[in-house]
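Minutes, project check-in
Item: structure for the 136-residue chain
Input as provided by the requester:
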Amino acid sequence: MSHEHHTFHNPPSATPDDVRKALDRNDIAGATDAKVGSALYGDGDRRASPELYLTLLDHPDHQVQALAATCLGHLARVYGQLDEDPVVPALRHVRARPHARGTAGNALEDIETFLHPRRARWRGRLWRLVRPGTWF
């Protein structure tokens, strides 16, 4: 049995075109770095990035799907705005897939936290009332 040590590194700044080029080369590692770099640093088109990530939610590679969900949450945090009409239903649909359940759920929480902070605070308060002994 082998064990790999993964180290964290900040991906370089990228654009949605960099993501597409890496996927065209079938370079999954390069595509994941480019996706995160595009979402975190905001070098891409604010409208093209969500459209790209929405299409990547249906990519054949599970890692690409899961990271596309995460990046949609990052976009909400970085830009403070996101067209929720296509994004939220798509993330809810993806949340049904076992390999992307956690990342899609986290992205939905990020969208609520960063785009609707008052609603997120009230939801947290309600949760603590309903489940008072729960450790957070």
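Outcome recorded: The chain has a mean pLDDT of 85.
No further action items on this chain.
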